[in-house]
Amino acid sequence: xxxxxxxxxxxxxxxxxxxxxxxxxxxxxxxxxxxxxxxxxxxxxxxxxxxxxxxxxxxxxxxxxxxxxxxxxxxxxxxxxxxxxxxxxxxxxxxxxxxxxxxxxxxxxxxxxxxxxxxxxxxxxxxxxxxxxxxxxxxxxxxxxxxxxxxxxxxxxxxxxxxxxxxxxxxxxxxxxxxxxxxxxxxxxxxxxxxxxxxxxxxxxxxxxxxxxxxxxxxxxxxxxxxxxxxxxxxxxxxxxxxxxxxxxxxxxxxxxxxxxxxxxxxxxxxxxxxxxxxxxxxxxxxxxxxxxxxxxxxxxxxxxxxx
Length: 308
Fold this sequence. Notes:
The chain is α+β, with helices and mostly antiparallel strands. About 30% of the residues lie in helices and about 25% in strands.
């Protein structure tokens, strides 16, 4: 089977799966070198003003932040992914580090596609939405098989979407099965709606880490706010851009066309074409398989440490 040769730019870079897989570190020497890279990271605590000044995180006790430069180091050098740029940084919970076995980290990013009208949040039946998403994922597997990729199954909600109208935040999680992998993959999402865009917090781990990830993401959810003038209520319809998306579209995957326009069929075919990432992290594609990760990590480490 072919392995995925591309990774989605944000969520896919979250791979605690890749970092924690016992096959990801080939030798004790490699592990030592990677630990040296990890030891060189500059951690920050307390109140963090995120790049761009639109949002901030008041980190709870034990939580630590890495700026975009260190986040790029983690994503590319420690987790072996090709693109760790364009983030607002990363957050790790108490006792968590990039190489922690069974751990997780969250990537923060910002989508400035415009102000999202949340009117559809109260009207959306997320169980019905899930049925459409599952149907589309199964239909797409026919195309994936033709292209030589392993099948991916959206099993269901690991946590059903919940929208807080008072804080304009929504969070949810998906249970995903990659054929050939023994354990299911957890994708956990938090979206904070703002004046001109959406603050995104994304985490990937194994399903058995759900309770741990949920606790950590809930803490980050509560600790993350937009700065003065950038909140949801600061929207000015005469000057600010409106997004074409609604809350349901965020849950479906953040496609560039509103869900109400019927964007389900063919969604994964577009991903396979890899010409435009219409959906960021729709199924957490980087949990593509242990053999692929082992080879990818070895090649990245050889290049990084000058081995031929």
